[in-house]
Amino acid sequence: MGRAWVALAWLAAVAGAAAEGVSGSGRYTPDWASVDSRPLPGWFDGAKVGVFVHWGVFSVPAWGSEWFWWRWRGERRPEYERFVRRRFPPGTDYADFAPRFAAADFQPDAWARLFQQAGARYVVFTTKHHEGFTNWGSSVSWNWNSVDTGPHRDLVGELGDALRKRNIRYGLYHSLFEWFHPLYLMDKKNGFKTQFFVSEKTMPELYELVLRYKPDLIWSDGEWEAPDTYWNSTAFLAWLYNDSPVKDTVVVNDRWGINCSCRHGGYYNCQDKYKPGTLPDHKWEMCSSIDRSSWGYRSDMQIDELMDEPAIIQELVQTVSYGGNYLLNVGPTKEGVIVPIFQERLLALGKWLSINGEAIYESTPWREQKENATDSTWYTSRGAAVYAIFLTWPESNVLTLSSPVPSSSSQVTMLGFSGPLKWQESPGKGLQVTLPSAIPSLLPLQPGWTIKLTGVA
């Protein structure tokens, strides 16, 4: 797929979208009112759990964060200059890191197996971060890509093939802008009244990614400096929804230009690690990272900077109770290794979901999202069942739930534990559930448990 062909495809798509105007039966037009009206494909809401992967040339210095180049050459922080002088030969520039991005131990099938064991229903992979390096042989990235240098492999394609063998949905993260690309800097200097970078780089990349890899999700980023009219976002989305090979199944987020976040798009990210605190009226996603201080791998990370299993489960449960999806990030090393501590966290999440996933996958928010008196008990629902997920084991072995209204037909069970549980109506309202005590030394050591209720109002 040559560069000229991609550029022509992009121009044809833009022209076609513009020509549609407000006419055309069942077709979306290049404006927010139209593209925002597209129903969100159902698979995304049902999936609930995904894994985010930040991987690129920034994994070579592996220090500070994935914003290493900007901190070093953009902000010119002295600690970054000192780091490079200590670790790399004199005169080293950021481009010199690319050949060291070897991915020598990258095993896409092993990654896919790990993500499946983690309970992920979808994976979002960085095709290109703000550094501009593409993890596929982009026709508009010249030698700044993973095929022409570094791994000499199509990382995007290899991981996609491995994931789809396991029926895991594949999402592609793509940064609209690049920190130091001369065409972008020219457009920025011109107050974004020119679109050299968009026409020569951003849009050809997006069309190429869709046509070549047919993603289930596009996770757009890097939009915050320019309006959506500069990015031609609605023209791209109208083509994506009307004519692309994934028009009926693809999902997109909300990062398509200044003031688009939490306002436009298929579902809302709003901001990194977003927590609404109430039930939103639009589908949303919370992205979080096991390493609280970085999305990319850092060789100097410390154990107290990482999320532990209870913290991950708490974020997951709160997110799903409020109707969101949970996207948990890991950053592989430059060799392509997901380090054991990250694997351990993902496997712990998967083990918890293997017991409690019934309350997570395909669930919907209940009329109450949590117990009013505490942040340790959260609700989801699925059909006629209500699930109370509690994160703290009560000392009395009796769980009090004030929100459900029991009836004579109410039944109470615990996921992962056979047989019904004893319960009685609370003196005020709700019910009191007597929890299992067969293995009290083990049950309270878990990071969360689920009570399933049927026959309650």
UniProtKB/TrEMBL annotation:
Main location: other
Superkingdom of source: Eukaryota
InterPro entries reported for this sequence: FUC_metazoa-typ, Fucosidase_C, GH, Glyco_hydro_29, Glyco_hydro_29_CS, Glyco_hydro_29_N, Glyco_hydro_b
Gene3D superfamilies in UniProt: Glycosidases (3.20.20.80), Golgi alpha-mannosidase II (2.60.40.1180)
Catalytic activity as recorded in UniProt: an alpha-L-fucoside + H2O = L-fucose + an alcohol; a neolactoside IV(2)-alpha-Fuc-nLc4Cer(d18:1(4E)) + H2O = a neolactoside nLc4Cer(d18:1(4E)) + L-fucose; a neolactoside IV(2)-alpha-Fuc-nLc4Cer(d18:0) + H2O = a neolactoside nLc4Cer(d18:0) + L-fucose
EC number: 3.2.1.51
SMART domains membership: Alpha_L_fucos (SM00812)
Domain Alpha-L-fucosidase C-terminal stretches: 369-454
Role description: Alpha-L-fucosidase is responsible for hydrolyzing the alpha-1,6-linked fucose joined to the reducing-end N-acetylglucosamine of the carbohydrate moieties of glycoproteins.
Subunit structure: Homotetramer.
Protein name as it appears in the record: Alpha-L-fucosidase
Record organism: Pogona vitticeps (central bearded dragon)
Source organism phylogeny: Eukaryota, Metazoa, Chordata, Craniata, Vertebrata
